[in-house]
Amino acid sequence: IMIEKTEPEHVDAPAEFSFPPTFSVSEIKNKQRRHLMFMKLKQEKRKQKVAMKKKKKKERDALGDKAPPKEVPKTIENQRVYDETTVNPEDEEVAFDEGTDEFSAYFNRLTNPKVLITTSDRPRGRTVRFCNQLATVIPDAHVYYRRGLALKKVIPQCIARGFTYLMVINEDRKVPNGMVLCHLPDGPTAHFKVSSVRLRKEMKRRGKDPTEHSPEVILNNFTTRLGHSMGRLFAALFPHDPQFVGRQVATFHNQRDFIFFRFHRYIFKNEQRVGIQELGPRFTLKLRSLQKGTFDSKFGEYEWVLKRHENDVCRRRFNL
């Protein structure tokens, strides 16, 4: 009996690595193998995403002007729940309220801003440096040490000396963590949480120290009645007419109720290109409360207070 030897047939391996539809990496017990399979799965998803982008680009190039508009990615900002207090610039009621509120004297050019910056008792070096750098950002700002005086005693002295703002920087564990901003003489008083403070020496690629020119002020995304009040509160810190020679800009950008502060200088490279360099300091504010009148922690009337967990029901609801 003759037996013929046959060579085994070679089966071509699939060109691309693929997983079964019900595959779960977490089912793999071995840690190293689980990590390897996870990286392969991630690489495969990345390849599929790139291939899909190339395919869509070819289709758009083929259709030309008839191509459908690009899809806008969904974010928390563009999916924001509508707020009934959103300000319409043409609303007569809003215009009347702004003409009679506490900041009307400033916007009617009857007063010039003058700011007193102080701290909590026995401030540490980082808080003191932060106050000194804020004084270089805000024109006509003066830094004084607290020396154990209560704010109720400080406020009458500020009013007698012609100050329009009292700014108090609080600290915890040698780090600035709070700010009380009181508009004088009639209020309101805002209390903020301060985070992500970076002084000038801690910033990379920063520009030279700012000059004494009055900066321009940019207020972004303050759309509700409360946000409009915050915008007017920040705007009244700076003089009416900016000095464009200094090319300095102070920005208060509201995003998801966090107010980001940045201080830049813009540089004209040529007639078409403009560059910016950050001067510092930078920090982030979160509004805790807004109180009518000047600071009064016991008997003060609060217009708005941040309630804990009030945004847990809907993350797309914002106050500013």
UniProtKB/TrEMBL annotation:
GO terms for cellular component: nucleolus; preribosome, large subunit precursor. It is found in: Nucleus, Nucleolus. It comes from the Eukaryota. Residues 113-296 form the Brix domain. The keyword Zinc-finger does not apply. GO terms for molecular function: rRNA primary transcript binding. Residues 59-74 have a biased composition (Basic and acidic residues). The keyword ATP-binding does not apply. SUPFAM superfamilies: Class II aaRS ABD-related. May be required for ribosome biogenesis. It comes from Oncorhynchus mykiss (Rainbow trout). GO terms for biological process: maturation of 5.8S rRNA; maturation of LSU-rRNA. Residues 44-83 are annotated as: Disordered. Residues 44-58 have a biased composition (Basic residues). PROSITE patterns: BRIX. Keywords: Ribosome biogenesis, rRNA processing. This is Ribosome production factor 1. It holds the Pfam family Brix.
